[in-house]
Design goal:
271 residues, Jelly Rolls, Immunoglobulin-like, 5-stranded antiparallel sheet, 20 strands, 0% helix
């Protein structure tokens, strides 16, 4: 039986609901780098969005069903212990004072494996979200709430999944990970109300689309995951498009300021 330590559901109260914006993480199912074999060791520079502390820089990806192990979600999943015991991580840009939900699936490979999850500002101290122990029979699924500090030195955070122990005590075996997701949770959005403004990105056209559904002038910023400002412009039309063809492949965050409204959009440039 899958073990769920916390469940955050959409909750309807009168005409109000609890809504979630889940564009905060990239390649959470580890499916973006397709492998043709049943298992592959991939350089972390090739695997989209994820990094490792392993000294050889390699990350291990399994296909669904390889060695009888099904993926929890999608067609592939990751083993934290590739050639070495280590940590896999991804940088996120988070809004100060917001509340996020972090969910993931964990499974042992050859018995009971233990993993610890951390989050914190890049270059700062990490907060442990707990130890997670699962056997090799079924996936454990977890959903954890986290309050982003209201005041911080940077809006770039790091989410870490660290191997603590594995059943066979071998550095190259243990701790499967899948279905990683991070969502903003916003309370009090009317379910009949249209969003006032929105941001979307198209890889085909390499255009960032901004819709303003009320009067006023907006200010748009685009950051990379190191927190560096890549674009800054004013938005004065109800529908505006901005070319991002000069940016390299990778993960970015667009932030739109419009009067008392702030909108975040995480997107991946693949071309």
């Amino acid at each position: 039986m899958k073990r769920i330590i916390a469940i955050f559901l959409f909750m309807l109260t009168g005409f109000q609901l609890k809504a979630q914006d889940c564009d905060l993480i990239c390649n959470g199912d580890f499916d973006n780098s397709f492998i043709t074999n049943s298992m592959a060791l991939i350089d972390s520079n090739i695997l989209s969005c994820w990094h490792t502390t392993a000294q050889d820089g390699l990350m291990e990806i399994w296909q669904n069903g390889y060695n009888g192990v099904p993926a929890f979600s999608g067609n592939q999943f990751l083993e934290i212990n590739a050639n070495y015991t280590g940590t896999v991580y991804q940088n996120l840009i988070l809004k100060p004072g917001s509340h996020i939900n972090i969910s993931f699936a964990h499974r042992g490979r050859a018995g009971t494996d233990v993993m610890e999850v951390f989050i914190g500002e890049t270059g700062g101290s990490m907060t442990s979200l707990g130890l997670f122990s699962d056997n090799d029979v079924t996936w454990g699924f977890y959903n954890i709430g986290y309050n982003v500090p209201p005041v911080q030195n940077t809006n770039v955070f790091q989410l870490r999944f660290s191997s603590v122990s594995a059943a066979m005590n071998l550095p190259s075996i243990g701790n499967f990970l899948d279905a990683v997701n991070v969502c903003y949770e916003t309370v009090g959005i009317n379910n009949t109300e249209q969003k006032e403004s929105s941001i979307s990105y198209s890889n085909n056209s390499q255009l960032l689309n901004v819709e303003l559904n009320k009067q006023g002038m907006g200010e748009l910023f685009v950051y990379n995951l190191a927190g560096e400002k890549m674009k800054h412009t004013q938005v004065v039309k109800n529908h505006s498009q901005f070319s991002l063809s000069d940016l390299n492949k990778g993960m970015y965050v667009a932030v739109l300021y419009l009067n008392d409204q702030t909108i975040y959009k995480t997107f991946l440039i693949t071309e």
